[in-house]
Amino acid sequence: MADQTLRRPSFVHSTSSETSSQSLPEQVADVFEEHNAECHGYGWEGLAQSLARSHMPENGDKLQFFGSEAGTFVVTSPDLKALTDLAVLLHSAFHNRELLSEHILTADPRLLPR
Asked: Would 5 be classed as within a structural domain?
C-alpha cells in the first residue's frame, strides 16, 4: 500500500554548493553586510519573516519558520500559495540588489538585527 501521508510544501535552501564557487546567499552577502545584517540562514529567515509580515499579512501566519542555521534557511507551510508568494518576494529581491537593500533596510529589526 502506497504511503498516503499528506506532504507539506516547504522551502529549504542550503548555502553549500558543489557546482558553484559561491553559494546563492554568498552572491548577495555584500548587500546584507552593507547594512550590518546576517547574510546566511539566520539573516534570510529574518528577512523572510519581515517580508511575510509586511508584504503578505493575509498569508504570513500560514508560514512556519524553524530550523534555520548559519548554512540553511527553512520555512514550511500547508498552504502552497503562501510559500509561493514568499518565494516570489525572495526571488525578486535576490535578483535585484537595490530591492534587496531596500528590504533589508526596512526589515523589522527584531527579526533581522542590524
From this structure: no
What domain range is 37 assigned to? 23-106
pLDDT in tens, the chain (114 residues): 444 444 444 445 444 444 456 666 678 999 999 999 998 889 999 999 999 999 999 988 899 998 788 888 899 999 999 999 999 999 999 999 999 999 999 999 999 998
The verdict on residue 12 lying in a domain is no
The residues near 73 (Cβ < 8 Å, ≥ 6 apart) are: 11, 12, 13, 25, 41, 44, 45, 48
41-55 helix and 97-106 helix, angle to the nearest 10 degrees: 80
Look up the pTM and report it: 0.79
Q: Give a yes or no: residue 114 inside a domain.
A: no
Number of domain units in the chain: 1
Please indicate, yes or no, if residue 61 is contained in any of the structural domains: yes
- The set of residues, in sequence order, having a beta carbon less than 8 Å from that of 1 and lying 6+ positions away, is none
